[in-house]
């Protein structure tokens, strides 16, 4: 990894425990500013738990976490929740059922005193390939993939510097997925955004992320470059198996 | 025939008139695996829900034929539908964690579904639930059986929903993106389980998915939907040779692990595809 850029995300020996269950058992990685890091691995291995700790949504962790030079602790810096945005794995759960898309998108702007709301909303809806008609609908009046795009739009509208993306394209058809992946690549280029992305789709992860961490049973068992993943230069048997199965289908 | 749909139309009232979400859809399903792929928002989930009469109250539904095992779904009594839903036909919803009951453990929900159609004690039902969780590749089925939905990971929620729908041994399973949050190895096991139910117990499977390679490998037939219509139907093995320009463009948008491209092609949507 490059040493000229500062690390935007630092995760050092992160541990998370729920009751007697160790969900994350000593995970460490770093993401330089303007770069992207992908997390893959079996279901239940702790990927979302790592993200939620970084997003400041779970205070029951041990270890060291830092975002944009700010160590995460009990109290969060005032603009933390603007600079760090997360797209959740279950878009339904992250959208308020009684809020229209318009409300969900304008609220963060109102809170932060950002003007030009109407133009920004129209722009972000177009960016995520949502029809203008979606703007005044409620979440239950949208399809699964449309809800997921609203969640992405809401994360983007506050112009964060770090985006935590948990399976952001799992409900999208591949043409909309391509538009979203291109959009994320463009924003990274223009605004130096830093991404942490979880996906079970290795082709999607390798497309956006130059580095990939593989989780199994609460541990990050391997960190490798996207090139090594593509070429099959894997060291851990978990990674090898995941890659073989993906290459078989793709 | 297990499922017969013809001339299905679903629309919603909007301030600017009726919005047609599903337009003149026809399909049939026997003891086989039918895949449905297509654009996000093209009406896949609505079509699936219509079959079990689970559409939102605002929806206006019309159909020439909408039958499950010969029963006319549009005119069936609520009691008849109750006998179908969750017993003879299961629907795995796209947002599983929000379709589960938040105040009931995963194990209790599966056990309840099991007792819907089978005779057995509570103890037996609980054991059956744990066995089903193991079948859907949950590593520690006992812990997960005692967990509430908010304590489950995304992929675990998806598998709990699958276990719940398989518990009553249904004749028809409609699975809306059932493996979208699962890694390749768990996904392969779950598909094997479904395959087994289709070939050995004569179940019919309607699989809605955005995963074109998966549908191509796993299903018998595929229907492709675009803007509320079925634009193409073909044998799954021939998906790679699809003829409709929408399907062809779709195949081209997929990122590949082994053949990377710096930028993905985006689709130029042709207004002619709407008619
Ligand atoms: N609030 C909670 N209470 C108890 N256990 C939890 C809680 N949240 C997560 N877990 C457990 O922690 C483990 C890791 O969950 P996590 O959601 O991080 O998995 P994941 O890697 O994101 O999986 P998936 O790919 O299925 O989404 C799981 O075993 C889960 O049951
Ligand atoms: N309650 C509702 N009121 C108004 N419009 C609705 C309602 N429910 C769905 N729609 C619209 O109907 C269309 C079809 O929705 P459906 O959920 O069937 O799409 P889908 O093909 O399953 O898409 P996805 O792949 O994104 O899940 C969408 O444009 C959606 O916005
Ligand atoms: Mg997760
Ligand atoms: Mg859907």
UniProtKB/TrEMBL annotation, chain A:
<keyword id="KW-0547">Nucleotide-binding</keyword>
<keyword id="KW-1278">Translocase</keyword>
<keyword id="KW-0997">Cell inner membrane</keyword>
<dbReference type="GO" id="GO:0005886">
    <property type="term" value="C:plasma membrane"/>
</dbReference>
<protein>
    <recommendedName>
        <fullName>Glutathione import ATP-binding protein GsiA</fullName>
        <ecNumber>7.4.2.10</ecNumber>
    </recommendedName>
</protein>
<dbReference type="InterPro" id="IPR017871">
    <property type="entry name" value="ABC_transporter-like_CS"/>
</dbReference>
<feature type="domain" description="ABC transporter">
    <location>
        <begin position="9"/>
        <end position="242"/>
    </location>
</feature>
<dbReference type="InterPro" id="IPR027417">
    <property type="entry name" value="P-loop_NTPase"/>
</dbReference>
<dbReference type="InterPro" id="IPR003593">
    <property type="entry name" value="AAA+_ATPase"/>
</dbReference>
<dbReference type="InterPro" id="IPR050319">
    <property type="entry name" value="ABC_transp_ATP-bind"/>
</dbReference>
<comment type="similarity">
    <text>Belongs to the ABC transporter superfamily. Glutathione importer (TC 3.A.1.5.11) family.</text>
</comment>
<dbReference type="InterPro" id="IPR003439">
    <property type="entry name" value="ABC_transporter-like_ATP-bd"/>
</dbReference>
<dbReference type="GO" id="GO:0055085">
    <property type="term" value="P:transmembrane transport"/>
</dbReference>
<keyword id="KW-0067">ATP-binding</keyword>
<comment type="function">
    <text>Part of the ABC transporter complex GsiABCD involved in glutathione import. Responsible for energy coupling to the transport system.</text>
</comment>
<keyword id="KW-0472">Membrane</keyword>
<dbReference type="GO" id="GO:0005524">
    <property type="term" value="F:ATP binding"/>
</dbReference>
<dbReference type="Pfam" id="PF00005">
    <property type="entry name" value="ABC_tran"/>
</dbReference>
<keyword id="KW-0813">Transport</keyword>
<comment type="subunit">
    <text>The complex is composed of two ATP-binding proteins (GsiA), two transmembrane proteins (GsiC and GsiD) and a solute-binding protein (GsiB).</text>
</comment>
<dbReference type="GO" id="GO:0016887">
    <property type="term" value="F:ATP hydrolysis activity"/>
</dbReference>
<keyword id="KW-1003">Cell membrane</keyword>
From TrEMBL, chain B:
<dbReference type="GO" id="GO:0005524">
    <property type="term" value="F:ATP binding"/>
</dbReference>
<protein>
    <submittedName>
        <fullName>Peptide/nickel transport system ATP-binding protein</fullName>
    </submittedName>
</protein>
<keyword id="KW-0547">Nucleotide-binding</keyword>
<keyword id="KW-1003">Cell membrane</keyword>
<keyword id="KW-0472">Membrane</keyword>
<dbReference type="GO" id="GO:0005886">
    <property type="term" value="C:plasma membrane"/>
</dbReference>
<keyword id="KW-0067">ATP-binding</keyword>
<dbReference type="InterPro" id="IPR027417">
    <property type="entry name" value="P-loop_NTPase"/>
</dbReference>
<dbReference type="InterPro" id="IPR003439">
    <property type="entry name" value="ABC_transporter-like_ATP-bd"/>
</dbReference>
<dbReference type="GO" id="GO:0016887">
    <property type="term" value="F:ATP hydrolysis activity"/>
</dbReference>
<feature type="domain" description="ABC transporter">
    <location>
        <begin position="5"/>
        <end position="252"/>
    </location>
</feature>
<dbReference type="Pfam" id="PF00005">
    <property type="entry name" value="ABC_tran"/>
</dbReference>
<dbReference type="InterPro" id="IPR003593">
    <property type="entry name" value="AAA+_ATPase"/>
</dbReference>
<dbReference type="InterPro" id="IPR050388">
    <property type="entry name" value="ABC_Ni/Peptide_Import"/>
</dbReference>
<comment type="similarity">
    <text>Belongs to the ABC transporter superfamily.</text>
</comment>
<keyword id="KW-0813">Transport</keyword>
């Amino acid at each position: 990894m490059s040493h000229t850029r500062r690390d935007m995300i630092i995760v050092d020996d992160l541990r998370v425990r729920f009751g007697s269950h160790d969900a994350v058992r000593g995970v460490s990685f770093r993401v330089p500013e303007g770069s992207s890091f992908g997390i893959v691995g079996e279901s239940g291995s702790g990927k979302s738990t790592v993200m939620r700790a970084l997003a400041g949504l779970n205070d029951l962790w041990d270890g060291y976490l830092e975002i944009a030079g700010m160590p995460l602790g009990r109290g969060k810096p005032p603009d933390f929740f603007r600079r760090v945005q997360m797209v959740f794995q279950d878009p339904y759960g992250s959208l308020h059922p009684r809020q229209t898309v318009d409300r969900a998108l304008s609220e963060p702007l109102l809170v932060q005193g950002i003007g030009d709301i109407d133009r920004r909303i129209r722009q972000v809806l177009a960016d995520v390939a949502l029809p203008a008609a979606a703007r005044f609908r409620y979440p239950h009046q949208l399809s699964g993939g449309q809800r997921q795009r609203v969640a992405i739009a809401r994360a983007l509208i506050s112009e964060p510097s770090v985006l935590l993306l948990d399976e952001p394209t799992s409900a999208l058809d591949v043409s909309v997925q391509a538009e979203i992946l291109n959009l994320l690549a463009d924003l990274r280029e223009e605004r130096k955004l830093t991404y942490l992305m979880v996906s079970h789709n290795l082709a999607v992860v390798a497309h956006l992320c130059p580095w990939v961490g593989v989780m199994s049973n609460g541990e990050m068992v391997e960190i490798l470059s996207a090139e090594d993943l593509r070429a099959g230069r894997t060291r851990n048997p978990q990674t090898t198996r995941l890659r073989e199965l993906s290459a078989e289908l793709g | 025939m297990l499922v017969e749909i013809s001339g299905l139309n679903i629309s919603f009232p909007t301030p600017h008139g009726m919005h047609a979400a599903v337009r003149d859809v026809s399909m049939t399903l026997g003891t086989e695996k039918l895949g449905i792929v297509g654009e996000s928002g093209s009406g896949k989930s609505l079509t699936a829900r219509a079959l079990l009469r689970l559409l939102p109250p605002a929806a206006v539904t019309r159909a020439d034929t909408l039958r499950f095992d010969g029963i006319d779904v549009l005119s069936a009594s609520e009691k008849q539908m109750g006998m179908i839903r969750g017993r003879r036909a299961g629907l795995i919803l796209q947002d599983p964690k929000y379709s589960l009951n938040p105040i009931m453990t995963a194990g209790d929900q599966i056990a309840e579904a099991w007792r819907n159609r089978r005779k057995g004690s509570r103890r037996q039902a609980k054991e059956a639930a744990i066995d089903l969780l193991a079948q859907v590749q949950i590593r520690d089925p006992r812990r997960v059986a005692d967990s509430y939905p908010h304590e489950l990971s995304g992929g675990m929620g998806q598998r709990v929903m699958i276990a719940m729908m398989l518990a009553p041994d249904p004749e028809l399973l409609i699975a809306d993106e059932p493996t979208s949050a699962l890694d390749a190895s768990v996904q392969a096991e779950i598909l094997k389980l479904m395959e087994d139910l289709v070939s050995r117990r004569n179940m019919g499977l309607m699989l809605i998915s955005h995963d074109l390679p998966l549908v191509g490998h796993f299903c018998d037939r595929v229907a492709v939907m675009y803007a509320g219509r079925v634009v193409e139907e073909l044998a799954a093995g021939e998906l790679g040779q699809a003829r409709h320009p929408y399907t062809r463009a779709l195949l081209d948008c997929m990122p590949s692990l082994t053949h990377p491209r710096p930028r993905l092609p985006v689709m130029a949507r042709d207004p002619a595809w709407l008619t």
